[in-house]
Write a structure and sequence with these properties.
Length: about 325
Amino acid sequence: MAHHRKLPWRASHNPYSIWVSEVMLQQTQVTTVLPYYQRFLQKWPTLQHLAESDETELLAAWSGLGYYSRARNLRRGARHLMDHHDGTFPHDPATLKETPGIGPYTAGAILSIAFDLAEPLVDGNVQRVFARFYGEERHIEERDTQKQFWKWARDWVMHAESPRALNQALMELGATVCTKSSPKCSSCPVKDSCFGNLHQCPETFPRRRPRRKVKELYWLGVVFEQNNKLLLRKNPTGGWWQDLWDFPTIALGKKSDLKRARTFLQKHYPQVGDWTALAPQKHSVTHHRIHLHPFVARITNTTLGKVPASERWWAIDKIDSAPTSSLVKKVMRAYY
Ligand code: SF4
């Protein structure tokens, strides 16, 4: 623990702020999370504030962090804890896991870090440490391998003097010493018992299934501008970026250069005279890579006629604080 990084959520044993930080840190880098975490806790400092929050404001504050279902689940979870547990976090793991958005990892983090209870947790860093330490040959994605990681995590935490210190130390070890590439085995406190170090092959663990091939998608992004407003479309429920606002997009089907994209656009919107191309953008979602050609058209209020209910004109200076996908933020940077 003496060597741990100075992170704001490590300074606290408050279960609410630990919960917020752990949810933000899922799939997201520490440096990205830091400013969001601080702003979030200033705006919603307690469980009660979050339970009473406005969802649109919450999504706007989350905008740019990605994986927006995390924000919705935080709010649902806060409501659940207010309604069923008087705004407290139950100490029983099974009861805590009934809270929307709190799964085994998050429950382990809250119970061990906030309350020093002997509950295990396994994240990507902990998996890497265990896979190397024990020389785990099975693919990390397999159910049995996952069960094994949890079993080791439980064994370790059960024997720890302080579950809080042990779990944080394991995560720190993975984040700072047992790193994905170039692990610093010579300065690792468990090096004398570690399979990966003793066999001089730490980087061959964890074993992984071969990667899924990346699917390339080619899209047109349509930015309609009128009276200092831009037209955004709300994404339908169940798809990518559900309920967030986006520029209308059109799938181009196959790889496209700027010329083909422009021709396609002119065919799709024959009533629009003039299009200005913005810088193309790339964006990754799961195993998809989106290649977006954004175009701007300045139009009058008769060009499109009445827009459907799923579309709305947004004042340009309000878009940065609107609940939009990360792709909109990239397009807006190219637009300004
Ligand atoms: S000795 Fe090396 S491989 Fe083993 S846990 Fe430490 S850093 Fe990781």
